[in-house]
Design a protein that fits this description.
Layout (H helix, E strand, L loop, with lengths): L8 H52 L3 H86 L1
Helix pairs in contact: 1-2
Amino acid sequence: MAKFIYPFQRILELKERETETAQYEVAKALERENKSQERLDALYNKIEEAQNELKEEQKHGMTADDLKIRMNFIIQLQKQLTFEQYELNSAKQNVNRKRDLLTDRVKEEKTWTMLKDKKREEHLFAENLAEQNVLDEMATTRFFRTVTAR
């Protein structure tokens, strides 16, 4: 029986590596998205904390300069929040692009794997057919020997 050799094995291996790379890129993009979400959550908490401190200090009285400093700080945090929201949206879009790419890579790899499986089945069928032909030939030869020997 001849060994099955897939002529496109290198292409299949390339597709497998591309799939692995795409999986890694999705993981990295998800990590970036999670970190961005954590920074955003921290900013929300910081803004809420600053606003609560401002309310407390206003109850006890504060100077106009202190009020202005606190308000500028909150405004600066809100600007950072807007930037971080943009970063999070960008990270989410990147994750979606990487997932789409991964989906494409998986499809390509599956196509080449299915082709390999089909070629292997064809090879086995051809091998079995050739073996069956040899056995049939042997049986026919044996039959004729026994018939002519009588």
